[in-house]
Amino acid sequence: MGGANGSGVGPATASFGRAVVYQEKLPRRWTIATTAVLAVWVAYQGSILLPEDSTVWFVILGASMFLALVFNAVPLSKRIYHRIRVRDGQLTVGRATIAVESLTVDSLREAREQPTDAEFAASLASRSREELAELRRTSRATEPPRIMGGGWSVPMGMDQIVVETVQGESLLIATHDREALLDALTRARQI
Fold it and tell me: What is the pLDDT of residue 8?
């Protein structure tokens, strides 16, 4: 998270909300670990098989590249669909961009009070069957929020917040650091 220091924009020419800059860093440990293990495996096989059995080594290389894609599909999709940036008064999640000014102040305040996924799961586990049935009935009556950036659901390892636009549309944002994102949105919205 950073400010607009050194951006060349003077305080008289830009509003405070446009000076807020935030970019969420996505974890890379899994991608680095799987790529390193597969690279070591391919190099080891190459030391055994090359140059006599180069066809077998190329098959192993192709299979390893396929495994690297399979093992890293979720991190790659997080990079495409759930990369979060706040810059110049715009919130960008993946390929979707909206103006921060279009988010309601009340929804940003309520987002701070929303339970995390773990807290929500714990509260559901403590409810009776009748309470859960009532929750299902009421949730079917409301339209689910649109996942900003795309995708079917919130990826594993990410938390979520729900905010509302001035037009009344509910947006679900998947994030790794909900407090930092809410802080940046709050400062950009000048609350």
Answer: 37
